[in-house]
Amino acid sequence: MSVLLNTLYVMTHGTRLRLDHETVCMEAENGNKQLIPLHHLSGIVCIGNIIVSPPLMMKCADEGRSITFLETNGAFKARVEGPVSGNVLLRQAQYQMLGQKEKQVELVRAMIAGKIQNMRSLLMRAARETSHEDDETVLRKAANALAIALKHLQMADDINQIRGIEGESSKNYFQAFSAMIRVQRDSFQMNGRNRRPPLDPINAVLSFLYTLLMHDCKGAIESVGLDPQVGFLHTLRPGRQSLALDIMEELRSIFADRLALTLINRQQIGPNDFESRPGGAIYLNEKGKKEVVIAYQKRKQDELLHPVLNRKVAFGLIPFVQARLLARYMRGDADSYIPYLYK
């Protein structure tokens, strides 16, 4: 049996977190108090103005739990964690891959193939389910463009070439994204992907979900002893979690895009769940963020079949399974990296 440890998300402005024996004590400004056993948690994510006591930080660091701080809009600010652990020989193999072009290309090609196939799967499913002929045309056209991209990807032998194919595929995918919205279309229109800042409600939801997914991918990478900053698709840059971003690519449409569409189409979030900022920026408000986080955590508890393991695993464990498959490839225990494909 697989056990999925929970991540605690704290979003209420002014909440104080402190250590109370073996529990986290959460105290809101209105006096409400809640205790959560530490052994139930794999990490804590603080969104907005949250106060964390030093004893709780040290306890989490000692026991391998991370505390991540995000801005109210979901942007990453800082992460508190204990000493680096893991297999130094595995990290050595990871660093050596920086000088192995063929192995890098093979890995990146597999990751992007997984991403494009998962995006295409979402488009095709939406095309089958829609009752609007115009939407079906848009969705199938985008899906066909991704099918062509997959053929070009098979022949790509340079990472920059693969990045170009990925970029064009994402552009085609997001141009058709609004056709997957079945309700509230006046409020939810998307003209391509935009961020820093997001300029419409759909991009606001996606950016927030991508931040949550990034947190999980980084934790998965670290759990197997890899360095999350040394990636191959995303260029190396101080402070950038390049490998976590790499492994996140194939999971974006599965974890974030599908959930965003579900929340909108089921009207679990609506126009009142957003706020405007100077310069045209649109972000989820506190109510909207709570709704998205609850749905995200619930989604992670669902079980589905993993084709490589040939057994059911919790949805939230998929980044951890993929991180282990990635580690096997880097060590040379596997001939190829197999991306996760959603069925």
Automatic annotation (TrEMBL):
One of its GO terms (molecular function) is hydrolase activity. Its cofactor is Mg(2+); Mn(2+). CDD domains: Cas1_I-C (cd09721). It comes from the Bacteria. Mn(2+) binds at E166, H234, E249. GO terms for biological process: defense response to virus; maintenance of CRISPR repeat elements. Keywords: Antiviral defense, DNA-binding, Endonuclease, Hydrolase, Magnesium, Manganese, Metal-binding, Nuclease. InterPro entries: Cas1, CRISPR-assoc_Cas1, CRISPR-assoc_Cas1_C, CRISPR-assoc_Cas1_DVULG, CRISPR-assoc_Cas1_N. Its EC number is 3.1.-.-. NCBIfam families: cas1, cas1_DVULG. CRISPR (clustered regularly interspaced short palindromic repeat), is an adaptive immune system that provides protection against mobile genetic elements (viruses, transposable elements and conjugative plasmids). CRISPR clusters contain spacers, sequences complementary to antecedent mobile elements, and target invading nucleic acids. CRISPR clusters are transcribed and processed into CRISPR RNA (crRNA). Acts as a dsDNA endonuclease. Involved in the integration of spacer DNA into the CRISPR cassette. Belongs to the CRISPR-associated endonuclease Cas1 family. Homodimer, forms a heterotetramer with a Cas2 homodimer. This is CRISPR-associated endonuclease Cas1. The lineage of its organism: Bacteria, Bacillati, Bacillota, Clostridia, Eubacteriales. The gene is cas1.
